[in-house]
Amino acid sequence: MKKDAYQIITDQILELMEKHGTDWNKPWKSTGSTQPSMPWSIGSGDNYKGINTLLLWSAGYTDQRFGTYKAWKDKGAQVRKGEKSTVITFWKMLETRNKETGEKENFPMLRTFNVFNAEQCVNVPELVIPEPLPELERNAIADTFIANTGADIRTESNRAYFVPSHDFIALPEMGAFSDSDSYYGTLLHELTHWTGHKDRLARTFGKSFGDNEYAKEELVAELGSVFLCVELQVTAEPRADHAKYLNSWIKGLKDDKKMIIQASSKASKAVEYLKELQETEQLQAVA
Fold first, then answer.
1. pLDDT tens for residues 125-139?
2. Which among 143, 146, 241 is positioned nearest to 191, based on CA atoms?
3. What angle do CA 229, 220, 269 make, to 5 degrees?
4. DSSP assignment, residue 281?
5. Kind and range of the H or E run holding 106
6. I need a labelling partner for 252 at 20 to 30 A (CA). Which of 17, 34, 200, 244 fits?
7. Distance between CA atoms of 119 and 218, rounded to whole angstroms?
8. In terms of DSSP H, where are the helices of the chain?
């Protein structure tokens, strides 16, 4: 029986998580390359978003340019014979007719298509690589981004968590972390939780540790942290306590094949929400 798009993507993510255990996001870390870290389409020039970001990162290439067979051909390049494509997704709007009213209606259908990385091709156009930012500036960028959100962040705790009922983030002092990257990765995880508050994106957090909604929210927060670490040029190590969440995530994914798609979508929306706060802050500064 032919698998649907949800099942294809779920199987890929499950394999990745089960293979790498508590370090399941490690394959997506920057390997020291100075080229752009977000995977992007050579056809549109845009960054991939949501679940496609995860799938393309996990493919393990240093070069972050991807395109269909035809897109590479249009660029004068050629996919090498025998290369295996990476499956990603898109939403296609399909038209149907309402049986009761006779009116035309549109509904989204999740589809998959295949892309190839630049490293799988020959005659690839030269990539212009920007100069890397120095370490201190990278941290300054993250600090500015976080401050612009206006989140209430309290650093008197010995652990990290978000309290929806009082709308604040608790976090240990930066010196309590093994390195600055771990600090930022943890803070961005909690900041993604912060976006889900009822006065912001109004996500359901779950009532107790390990329940299905809790597992989904933790996955959203972890993906949001990964996305933000890449965008802000922070390299985050996986937190040790994420091992506690892994079994819940895997069980949830096996029980609900749409979970990873939904979590990735919500994580992308959280990142976009935080970016919009940056724009608001800039407009206020100009005014």
1. 888 665 655 665 668
2. 146
3. 80
4. H
5. strand 104-117
6. 200
7. 33
8. 5-20, 51-58, 69-74, 135-149, 180-195, 212-231, 243-255, 259-286
Q: How many residues does the chain have?
A: 287
- The answer to whether 119 touches 63, Cβ cutoff 8 Å, is yes
C-alpha–C-alpha distance, residues 31 and 37, integer Å: 10
Contacts 24+ apart (CB under 8 A), 25-29: 25/222, 25/226, 25/236, 25/238, 26/238, 27/57, 27/58, 27/60, 28/54, 28/57, 28/58, 28/226, 28/230, 29/235, 29/236
Task: For residue 26, give the 3-state DSSP assignment.
Answer: helix
30 — phi, psi (to 5°)? -65, 140
Query: CA 64 to CA 76: how far, in whole Å?
Result: 18
Report how far residue 43's alpha carbon sits from residue 26's, in angstroms, rounded to the nearest whole number: 28
Q: In the β-sheet with 161-163, what is the strand arrangement from edge to edge?
A: 153-154, 168-170, 161-163
- How far is Cα 165 from Cα 252, in angstroms, rounded to an integer? 26
Q: What are the residues facing 40 on neighbouring strands?
A: 47, 65
Alpha carbon distance 38, 211 (integer Å): 32
Amino acid 132 reads P
Count other C-beta atoms under 10 Å from residue 210's C-beta.
Answer: 14
Phi, psi of 108 (to 5 degrees): -80, 140
Largest Cα–Cα distance in the chain? 65
Say what the pTM is.
0.65
- CA 188/CA 207 separation, integer angstroms: 22
Q: Which amino acid is at 116?
A: F
- CA–CA distance, 163 with 284 (Å, rounded to integer): 28
Secondary structure (3-state) at 90? strand
Q: How many CA atoms lie within 13 A of 30 on its CB side?
A: 20
Q: Which tens digits make up the pLDDT trace of 157-205?
A: 888 899 999 999 999 888 887 778 778 888 999 999 999 999 999 998 6
Place of tokens 């941290």: 139
Q: Which two tokens stand for residue 31?
A: 């390997």
